[in-house]
Amino acid sequence: MLKFQTNLKRKIELLGFALDNPDCLKDADFAELFSRDIPTIKRDMQELRSEGIDIHSEKGKGLCVRQEIDANLLRRLIIQYMGICASESGVDRATRLMVKKLKGKALSILVRLQHCIEERRVVRIDYQKDDAEKEQDRELQPLLIFSSEGYWRVLALHEGKMKQYHVNKLLDVRPTERTFRPPPRDQIEELFRNSFKSWIGTERHAVKLCLDRTWAERIK
């Protein structure tokens, strides 16, 4: 099962990079990236084509996808990918909204973020703010992709502060050559321990729930 998940993760990441491949990376580049041989990369591409994805290696362009991927297939791939990477539940609605907003860019952005999380690599993002203002070249140290309140989000350090960013509002993600040292995993988990992943912080608030008699009895 672990081998299957590893192979599936690599295959989906290969597709994600191919959907947005400004550096014209070729088979050999991806073989080096994933620490596999070129025949393995070619086999991954063949399996993707068997699922109806028109992925090929073109001279001067590297790996690319010639036709738009069916939305249902794209949602399934993203759910599989995030299930492997994040082991989150309730991701279908968040994925549906993300695909509707970003289309093929959704998978590309997720793959780039996840790779930078695993490689501890600083990224530069272009971000659409709520007030319609666009922020360019913001540097982040990405730590975790998670779903909350119906949206995919990325937890990241920015200028020493922990912040959340809506993946749906990411216009572009560009890895840099610089790496960083992330905080301990238990420190990240502590941020969410009492917050239902709704905000960032360690403060606690008293919450009183009023239930009718029927539900109170059922909960007891």
Summarize the structure in words.
The protein is of the alpha+beta class and about 220 residues long. It has two domains: about 1-65, Winged helix-like DNA-binding domain superfamily/Winged helix DNA-binding domain (Arc Repressor Mutant, subunit A, Orthogonal Bundle); about 70-190, SH3 type barrels (Roll). It contains eight helices and seven strands; from the N terminus they run H-H-H-E-E-H-H-H-E-E-E-E-E-H-H. It has helices at about 1-20, 25-35, 40-50, 70-85, 90-100, 105-120, 185-190, 215-220, and strands at about 55-60, 60-65, 120-130, 135-150, 150-160, 160-165, 170-180. The strands form two sheets. A five-stranded antiparallel sheet has the order 6-5-4-3-7. A two-stranded antiparallel ribbon has the order 1-2. A hairpin with a 2-residue loop joins strand 5 and strand 6 (about 160-165). The chain is globular. The mean pLDDT is about 90.
Reconstruct the topology from this structure.
Layout: H1 2-19, H2 27-33, H3 38-50, E1 55-58, E2 62-65, H4 71-86, H5 92-102, H6 105-119, E3 121-128, E4 134-148, E5 151-158, E6 161-166, E7 170-179, H7 185-192, H8 213-219
Antiparallel strand pairs: 1-2, 3-4, 3-7, 4-5, 5-6
Helix pairs in contact: 1-3, 1-4, 1-6, 2-3, 4-5, 4-6
Give a summary of the structure in a few sentences.
This protein has 220 residues and is of the alpha+beta class. Helices cover 43% and strands 25% of the residues. It has two domains: 2-65, Orthogonal Bundle (Arc Repressor Mutant, subunit A); 71-192, SH3 type barrels (Roll).
